[in-house]
Amino acid sequence: MAAHSANGVRRAFVDFFVDRGHHHEPSGSLIPHDPTLLFTVAGMVPFKPYFVGEQPAPWDRAVTVQKCVRAGGKHNDLDEVGRTSRHLTFFEMMGNFSFGDYFKSDACAYAWEFVTATLGLDPERLWVTVHLSDDEAEAIWRDEVGVPAERIQRLDEDNYWRMADTGPCGPCSEIFWDKGPDFGDDGGPAHGDEERFIEIWNLVFMQFEQHEDGSMTPLPAPSIDTGAGLERILSVLEGVDSVWETDEFVRLLATISDITGVQHGSSDRTDVSQHILADHARSSTFLISDGVFPSNEDRGYVLRRIIRRAVRHAWLLGVEDLVMPTLVDAVVAIMGDDYPDLVSNHAFVRDVLEREEGRFRETLRTGLAILDDALDGMGEGSTLDGDIAFKLHDTYGFPLELTQEITAEKGVAVDNEAFGVAMARQQEMARSARKDGSTAAVGDLRSVLEAGGPTEFVGRDRDEAEAVVVYFDGDMVVLDRTPFYAESGG
Questions:
Q1: Which of 126, 207, 106 is nearest to 162 (CA)?
Q2: Do 384 and 353 fall into the same domain?
Q3: What is the pLDDT of residue 482?
Q4: Structurally, how many domains does the chain consist of?
Q5: Is residue 246 part of a domain?
């Protein structure tokens, strides 16, 4: 194939499977139509209804390059990002799928042909693993594909794939690349060093559906779900030690070096912060473009945590000005050709991140000063008072997770139990205040209504109005007319 690049590998993968009768389906949203998942965590997520038989598949076979985020719930790589050579919160999963059409033999043959013939990887450096129980898969790899028996190993749970606690599942088989003796001990994926043997493709033989009670039933038709991480494959093709050295990350990290004045590779500490900035810029850009907004609940909370973590690491690199808007520009410039939604949503994503970062930087300044004072003199193995962590959270909006991350870097724990007690106490006080306040407010408003009549709503034909204040108690204002909806609709 042509020069190794993210664009080149994406297109080579799609073309390979289209030539073999697969329908090319564009990437689905990062927001799944599945209440059991926060985000789209794998290429098969958009196809789940086809695998479980809820809907008929419109094609027998398909190929995708699916954008994925693993930053919450069962699939969560957030805390690993920046500290390893391969973990990301946002990544691209290349996959081919069979909906009751071909099964193990063709799936193994296709994968091997693509990595050896199309990508040109040396078959002598490839290893294969299968599930302990899967004699059939081992025989296919050995007798049909031609992988030497000594480079096929059996694993237990690592070769059984589940999307979540319920849903499609089945045994799987993985292809690994051996980076060589400089990266650790020999012994293959089952016994060697995980930094030496890198998984590049997972072939899931989708045979069962797991239910809430733990039972499994056969799927209507055995199917194939495969996933090959684009960034990992690129690191192998480009002969580099980590995903951070692949072509798209090199461009993004160059922008980060320009912003921070710190060259990538200067030190392990600054590299971690730069890696986190690069990854989190990608994940936050794609999440907002797909309709996730920073909030204090569910997906929005995870997004807010990602943004705030990025901002804190920009701070560690000495940057006090806004960084996220510039990083959005870089992500769109690098990936917009393959994901045109990024281009059309560029200004909106930039605005959301600019406002979110601006608000949090004020919180960060105050919170870090208080936390630094609290940690002054505390040695490794100490525990930070949970009441201090709660004060940071409740009074200054400083997230508990950020407090935990900062204290952990100094070898200090947080008294989470005391934090929980303080949180419960505050919630009970808030409930009591709301109850007492609402009772008094109902009586006051009834008097206002009897004296002056109901407020006239004029919002159906205008959004501005002159009004008379008929009641004001320091917290509440009642007008004689308003264009504002009382609830919903506005």
A1: 207
A2: no
A3: 86
A4: 4
A5: no
Domain range spanning residue 292?
261-376
pLDDT on residue 44: 92
Q: 174 - beta bridge partners?
A: 129, 202
Partner residues linked to 128 by β-bridges? 152, 175
Q: Which two tokens stand for residue 313?
A: 């690491």
Of 376, 395, 410, which residue constitutes the final position of a domain? 376
DSSP percent split of the chain into helix, strand, coil, nearest 5: 50, 20, 35
Q: Which pLDDT does position 401 carry in this prediction? A: 84
The dihedrals phi and psi of 201, each to the nearest 5 degrees, come to -155, 135
395 and 282 both lie in a single domain: no
Residue 415 lies in a domain: yes
In a domain, 253, yes or no: no
As given in the structure block, the two tokens for residue 122 are 């040396």
The beta strands (E) that lie in 211-262 are given as 216-229
Three-state SS at 376: coil
Cβ atoms of 1 and 113 closer than 8 Å: no
State the Cα–Cα distance between residues 396 and 85, nearest whole angstrom. Answer: 35
pLDDT the model gives residue 2: 43
**Is 247 inside any structural domain?**
no
What separation in angstroms does the CA of 108 have from each of 128, 152, 171, 187? 10, 13, 13, 23
User: Concatenated DSSP letters for 249-271?
Assistant: HHHHHHHHHHHHS--TTS-HHHH
pLDDT at 456: 79
CATH number of the structural domain spanning residue 194: 3.30.930.10
Q: What is the pLDDT of residue 490?
A: 44
Q: Rounded CA gap, 441 and 191, in Å?
A: 68
Q: Which residues contact 211 (CB under 8 A, 6 or more apart)?
A: 166, 217
Looking at the fold, whether 372 and 391 belong to one and the same domain comes out as no
Distance of CA 244 to the CA centre of its chain: 17
Residue numbers of the chain with a pLDDT score lower than 50: 1-2, 489-490
Based on the fold, state whether residues 313 and 447 are members of the same structural domain: no
Domain boundary among 358, 376, 394: 376
Chain centroid to CA 77: how far? 8
CA angle 374, 324, 73 (to 5 degrees): 70
